[in-house]
Amino acid sequence: MTDTLKIEELTSQDLRELAERAGRELEDASAPEILQWATRTFGPRFCVTSSMEDAVVAHLASRALPGVDVVFLDTGYHFPETIGTRDAVAAVMDVNVITLTPRQTVAEQDAEHGPKLHDRDPDLCCKLRKVKPLEEGLTSYTAWATGLRRDESPTRANTPVVGWDEKRQKVKVSPIARWTQDDVDAYVAEHGVLTNPLLMDGYASVGCAPCTRRVLEGEDARAGRWAGSGKTECGLHG
After folding, report:
1. I want to staple 42 with a disulfide (CB 3.0 to 4.6 A). Which of 10, 46, 53, 121 is the partner?
2. 206 near 223, Cβ under 8 Å?
3. Are 58 and 155 in contact (CB under 8 A)?
C-alpha cells in the first residue's frame, strides 16, 4: 500500500490510517528512521517545511532523500538573518529550497487592511502571510515534515512523530518531536548544521520580526512569539 507509485491512489481515509499506524509504530524510532520511512513511502511527494530557525530537519531529511524539497515561507516580515540562513542552506546543503510568498506584498496588504495588521489582528496576518501560502504550496505533496518538538511549549506536548493533518488532508511528520533542546544542540554541533544567528542573541524561537522578541530566563522557547497577545501559534500547526 505504501509504494510511492501508488500513493496518489490512496484515499484520505487510507492516508489517515497509514499516518496513525506509523505514529504508533515509529514512536520510539530515531529521527533518521522516521525520515527514512517517510521518504521511502512518499518519495517526491514528501517535503520538509522550515522556518530557517535552524536546518536540523532539512539536514536529517537530506541524508534520507538527497535533493529533498525544503519549503520556506517568506512572509515579507522576516529578520535579515532568517533570509540569510535560507540562502546559506540553499547554497551548502543537498536540498531544493522552495520559497513561498503570500499573494499580496506587505505594501499591498497595508493598502487593503491598514498598516501593522500584525499588531491589530495577528491571526488574520498569519492567515494571509503564512497559512494560505502554505496550503497552496503543499498542494503537490502528500506528506510534509516539520521541526515541532514536544518540549517547546504546552501546546506541542502531544505532537505525534507521524500524524494526520486534518486541515490539509496530509500526512504530517515530526521526526524530532521527542528531542530536547540538548538533542538539537548536540546534533548541530556534531554535524555543523546551519542555525539562525539570532539563536545566539537571546531569541529561542524565530518568527516574523514584528512579532518576535528575545526570551527571558525561565521562559519556554515560544514565549517570545506574539508576547502579550495571548497568541501562541501562527495557525500552521493547529
Report:
1. 46
2. no
3. no
Measured distance CA(124)–CA(234) in Å, rounded? 10
List, for residues 120-134, the tens digit of each pLDDT value: 999 999 999 999 999
SS3 content of the chain, % helix, strand, coil (to 5): 45, 15, 45
Instruction: Confirm whether residue 47 is marked as ligand binding.
Output: no
To the nearest 10 degrees (0 to 180), the angle between helices 56-64 and 31-42 is 60
47 catalytic? Reply is: no
Q: Which amino acid is at 57?
A: V
CB 59 within 8 A of CB 156: no
Predicted TM-score of the model (pTM) = 0.89
Q: Is 46 helix (H, G, I), strand (E, B) or coil?
A: strand
Q: Which of 234, 235, 236, 237 is catalytic?
A: 234
Of 108, 126, 92, nearest in space to 236 by CA: 126
Which candidate, 182, 177, 2, 146, places its Cα nearest to that of 61? 146
Amino acid at 150: R
pLDDT at 219: 76
* Helices assigned H by DSSP within the chain: 12-25, 31-42, 56-64, 80-92, 106-113, 117-120, 122-126, 132-137, 181-191
